[in-house]
Amino acid sequence: MSSRTQRPRRATTPRRRGLEPWLYLAPALLVLAAMLAYPLYQLVLVSFYDYRQPQVSGVEPLRFVGLDNYTELFGDSEFWGVLANTIGFAAACVLATLFVGGALAVLATRLSRWVRTALFLSALAAWATPAVTGSAVWLFLFDPSLGPVNQALSGLGLEGFEGHSWTYGKWSAFGLVGAQVVWCSFPFVMVTLYAGIRAIPEEVIEAARLDGASTPRLAVGILLPMLRPAMTVVTIQSIIWDVKIFTQIYIMTSGGGIGGQNLVLNVYAYQKAFASSQYALGSAIGVITTLLLLGITVVYLRSLRRNGEGL
């Protein structure tokens, strides 16, 4: 028998167990509060004031206007056009990104090691390319006079593409920017879904094949349900990236296209705040964009939870 008597361990109270997760989360919450909550508070606060160049210069005092900035936005037909552009462009980019990334993830499982490594390196190079650089490269590729794409199409006998400007028309400009966005976004989807596919036990797939499941049935009935947690992550991430797109639209369409035909919310907010010095209107657009993203994410997660899925 030991000469020293061990102290009985103190029982953990329910209150302490309830506080324990918050103690672990406290450092991250403090960083988020400093980096996100306070700037968001300032953004919302500015949107309730008449805050333009005279107020910035101190010539006129700040004036509280309540919801006037939001009322002005909601009564402006241009705002609704920009909002429709943003939602339509983001939806098309998200669907295309998921399709390309998912297809290449499935393809990667069937390739040899060296070919798969080359595919991943190429994809990661696209992912690592800064948005400014990628936009400039794509603009050069589709340049009306010097771009190799127009020269190749003209060489094939398609004379309509000789000197064709891809950024002049609204839809061709959105298509070109969307292709660039998908090009730099699909690697994240591909890598995430590839990891999810590799985590599925081989026994499950072999059992389905022994039961006579065809490849489409295997993909829809077995692989897709087991990949839904990963699909949720990449879908939400893609929605956030594509709704708040700025760099590609601003560079490739010279600030929103001819007459603002390619404006999206982030570029619209930038123009209002810094080109027109209507900082409060720009802040109001920023608040609306944030609420839109939160709303889409919550609706998507709730729909998954109703179906018994979720993260």
TrEMBL record:
Keyword Nucleus: no
Domain ABC transmembrane type-1: 83-300
Keywords, alphabetical: Cell membrane, Membrane, Transmembrane, Transmembrane helix, Transport
Compartment annotation: Cell membrane
Name of the protein in its database record: Carbohydrate ABC transporter membrane protein 1 (CUT1 family)
Spans through the membrane: 21-41, 79-107, 119-141, 171-197, 218-240, 279-301
Gene Ontology cellular-component annotations: plasma membrane
InterPro entries xrefs: MetI-like, MetI-like_sf, UgpAE/MalFG_permease
UniProt similarity note: Belongs to the binding-protein-dependent transport system permease family.
